[in-house]
Amino acid sequence: MKVLKIIGKILGILAALAVVCCIVILIIFRNEVLTIASIEKIDDYPIYTMDYKGTYWFEEFMETNGMVSHRDFSAFFMNKVTRGLVENDGKITPRKTAMCTCFVCRNENGDIIYGRNLEQGGYCPPVVVSTHAGKYDTIGTAFLVDSNEEMPELKRKINMLTEPYFTADGMNETGVAISLLSVPYSILPDNGDVPLLSADQVCRLVLDQAGSVDEAVELFSKFNLDASPLEQLSACHFLIADRSGKMVVVELHNGKTSVVLPIHDNYMTVTNFYLNDEISSGIGQARYKYIEKALEEKQGVLSEEEALELLASVKDPHIHAEWTSVYNLTTGDMYIMPKSQLDRVHRIR
């Protein structure tokens, strides 16, 4: 009987210690647990949404000099997210180039509408990520970091903690929007001893820190662009707009950073060729002309629904839209749809 009492006390102590350990772990990793718990699958394509709680250490990542090698990001982030308990000498999985179609216009109320197709030749599901750790709150669409459908759901969700670093397009609370679009590789500008960032991370930097187009352009002197995570020999240019109606394309081309202004007062289109290059090297000229003609006919005025319809109608024999994002920079509304399917549009505030 006495032995049973001793065993019972030991088990009670062990149970109490286990509870205390669980509480401590939940306190330490509460933001990660809450972020994972917020992940929701809103479309069977799939499309996921995630409300990121707490920090993702982006400013600290910038201080480490960024993407010095493919392994740096995985090692840095794993060390941070596990609080130094796990080290990872992994690498970033290369992705295909982003053959996109983007434009900025206004709706009938004068709101600034920002639309983009992410077009690729393969499977590339998106994650809509809300963040609160930078200077501004943001919402944007990121590449799903691992689209292996056979991966256990919990492991997929843990991997998704890296999503802010893979931002393809987005908008922040001040109404600044940005997206990346692939262009042929060119000699990139050298800004000296500054962090090396991938194009995805450039989008994250702008969304976190820029309160206007002018502030976003200034940030391009604070990093060097790393094109190496892309599978093909290519780089990116960026369409940036804000709530005031200002819009530009920033191109890193022939060793210089160029700011391309719109040729129209109230709308601008960009695809996958350099706008500041006399021979317009790149692709997507037919898509560009198609959008330009549609916007000209509508005098640069489209509702959100019409913007979605226009992007869904863009056709290219070699690529197709993986997802379409439309942002109202004035109201903060976002719309996303998979595979140009207008009956599957999701509205997110």
**SSE succession:** HHEEHHEEEEHEEEHHEEEEEEEHHEEE
Tell me the strand order in the biggest sheet: 1-2-5-6-7-8-11-12-13
Span between N and C termini? 63 Å
Report strand %.
25-35%
Query: How many β-strand stretches?
Result: 19
Radius of gyration: 22 Å
Backbone shape: globular
Q: Any low-confidence stretches, pLDDT <50, length ≥5?
A: none
- Average pLDDT for all residues: 88
Estimated helix fraction = 25-40%
Task: Work out the oligomeric state of the chains in this entry.
Answer: single chain
Number of continuous helical runs:
9
**Helix- and strand-based class?**
alpha+beta
For the largest beta-sheet, the strand count, sense and barrel status come to: 9 strands, mixed
Tell me the layout of helices and strands.
Blueprint lengths: L1 H27 L1 H9 L1 E4 L3 E5 L6 H6 L6 H12 L17 E8 L5 E9 L5 E6 L6 E6 L9 H7 L7 E6 L4 E8 L11 E2 L1 H11 L3 H7 L4 E2 L8 E8 L5 E7 L2 E5 L7 E3 L1 E2 L8 E2 L1 H13 L6 H9 L7 E9 L5 E5 L7 E3 L1
Parallel strand pairs: 2-5, 9-10
Antiparallel strand pairs: 1-2, 3-4, 3-14, 4-17, 5-6, 6-7, 7-8, 8-11, 11-12, 12-13, 15-16, 17-18, 18-19
Describe this protein's structure.
This protein is of the alpha+beta class. The chain is 29% helix and 29% strand. It contains 9 helices and 19 strands. The strands form 4 sheets. Strands 1-2-5-6-7-8-11-12-13 form a 9-stranded mixed sheet. It has a 6-stranded antiparallel sheet with strand order 14-3-4-17-18-19, covered by helices on one side. It has a two-stranded parallel ribbon with strand order 9-10. The chain is globular and about 90 Å long. The chain starts with a helix and ends with a strand.
